[in-house]
Amino acid sequence: MQNNSNLAVNTLTTEVSLSETQPHLTLIENTLSTDFTQNELVLSVKNLTKSYHKTGEQPVLNNISFDLHAGEYVAMIGRSGAGKSTLLHVLNGSIPATKGEIYNGNETQNIVNFSQKEMRRWRATCATIFQDFCLVPRLDVITNVLLGRLSETSTLKSFFKQFSDKDRARAVELLQWLNMLPHALQRAENLSGGQMQRVAICRALMQNPSLLLADEPVASLDPKNTHRIMQALGNVASNGIPVLVNLHSVELVQQYCTRVIGLAKGEIIFDGHPSDLTQEILNQLYGDEVSETQ
Ligand SMILES: Nc1ncnc2c1ncn2[C@@H]1O[C@H](COP(=O)(O)OP(=O)(O)OP(=O)(O)O)[C@@H](O)[C@H]1O
C-alpha cells in the first residue's frame, strides 16, 4: 500500500507549487467541511467539576460552565496548574469528570455519562492535539496523518495501511495545506518540533472533527512556526470547527483568538474578547507571574 501513498503524493506534488514560507490557505476551503452554521452551539459545559483525589483537597476544576460555538477560536489561559490540561482531557473523555454535564451541541445526552462505545465515538469527533503530539515515530508522515481515520477503519486494514483513495487524497491535501507534503514519506521521528506539530494538526483534521482541542500547541516553537500554527488553527476555526487552545502567551491570544477564558485555581474568572483583558484581570490570573506572560 506504500506504493499507493507514493502515487498520491507524487501526483499532487507535480500539480501544485510548494512553498515553505506560506501555508496554502486557499486549500483549506476544500479540505475542511462542517455542517455547522456560524455561531451554532457545538459544545455546552455545565457545572463541570474534576477532583483527582476523593476527599479533602480543592477540586482541580470547580463548577465550570461555558459554551463553544461554530467559528470560535478560544484561548484558555491561566497560570501553571490552573487546570487547563485537565479541562481538555475531561472534554475529550480521556479522564472522567467528577460532576457536571457536557453536551454535544443541542443533544440531550450528557457526555460525562457515555458508555465506552459512545465515548470512543465522541473522541473521534473531538480531535485533540496533545503537548507531545503522540505521533508514531517509526511511521512516515502520511501514515501518521491517515491514522486520524482509525476510528473509521478496521484495525486490520489500518495495520496493513489499507486506507481508501479518498482518505489518502485528503491526507495529501492536508499536508499540502500546511506545507508538509515534501516530508510525506519521511519518518515522523526525523521531523523538527514545528513539523511534528503540523503533522499532528493534519492528523486531527483527518478525523473530520466537530471540535478541535489543542494543549499548548506552540510551546517550544520558534516565532515563524508559532505564527504559522496560530494562523492555521485560526483558519480551522473560521471554517466552522471551534478551536479551544491552551496558551501561555497573552500576546498571541490578543493577536489571533476571538475569545479568551481565564482559569484560576480551577474556576473561570474571565470569559470575553481578548481586547477586554485588563491588567487587573491578568494580575488575578497570573499574580506575580504576570510579567513573564508578555
Ligand atoms: N493525573 C493527575 N493526578 C493527580 N493530580 C493531577 C493529575 N494531573 C494533574 N494534576 C494536578 O491538577 C492540577 C492542574 O493540572 P493541569 O495540568 O490541568 O494544569 P495546567 O493549567 O494545564 O498547567 P500547565 O500550564 O503547567 O500545563 C495540578 O495541581 C496538577 O498537579
TrEMBL record:
CDD domains: ABC_PhnC_transporter. It is a peripheral membrane protein. Keywords: ATP-binding, Cell membrane, Membrane, Nucleotide-binding, Translocase, Transport. GO terms for molecular function: ABC-type phosphonate transporter activity; ATP binding; ATP hydrolysis activity. It holds the Pfam family ABC_tran. PROSITE patterns: ABC_TRANSPORTER_1, ABC_TRANSPORTER_2. It is found in: Cell inner membrane. InterPro entries: AAA+_ATPase, ABC_transporter-like_ATP-bd, ABC_transporter-like_CS, ABC_transpr_PhnC, MetN_ABC_transporter-like, P-loop_NTPase. The keyword Flavoprotein does not apply. GO terms for cellular component: plasma membrane. Residues 43-290 form the ABC transporter domain. Transmembrane segments: none annotated. Its main location: membrane. SMART domains: AAA. PANTHER family: AMINO ACID IMPORT ATP-BINDING PROTEIN, PHOSPHONATES IMPORT ATP-BINDING PROTEIN PHNC. This is Phosphonate transport system ATP-binding protein.
